[in-house]
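Structure tokens please, single chain.
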Amino acid sequence: MDTIFIHDLRVETRIGVYAWEQHQTQPLLLDVEFAAPSARPFASDQLDDAVDYARVVARLQALAAEHPHKLLERFAEAVASILRSEFAVPWVRVRVAKLAPLSGVKQIGVTLERGTRA
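Here you go.
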């Protein structure tokens, strides 16, 4: 299976279960890895045959900016759903982490996989 990855994408969003978290943005760090929907771009060298990484990044940034979520789990599910439905990827792994959410903790996060690996 051929995979594409985007690592260390930093986005700002309102996320959390506490009232104060819903009123201020917080940074999240995203890592996504997904199966290439087709082998065509490996031979054709044409963007029209490939997943446009810039469009993926812009879409995930828009998700973060426009939709506050309470749980990292729900945000990660939304990321996976977008990649599978809007970019036609058959399999995706999403890692989402809050940065320095608690004293003495560098990151807290969730990883999920959706779809079928070829």
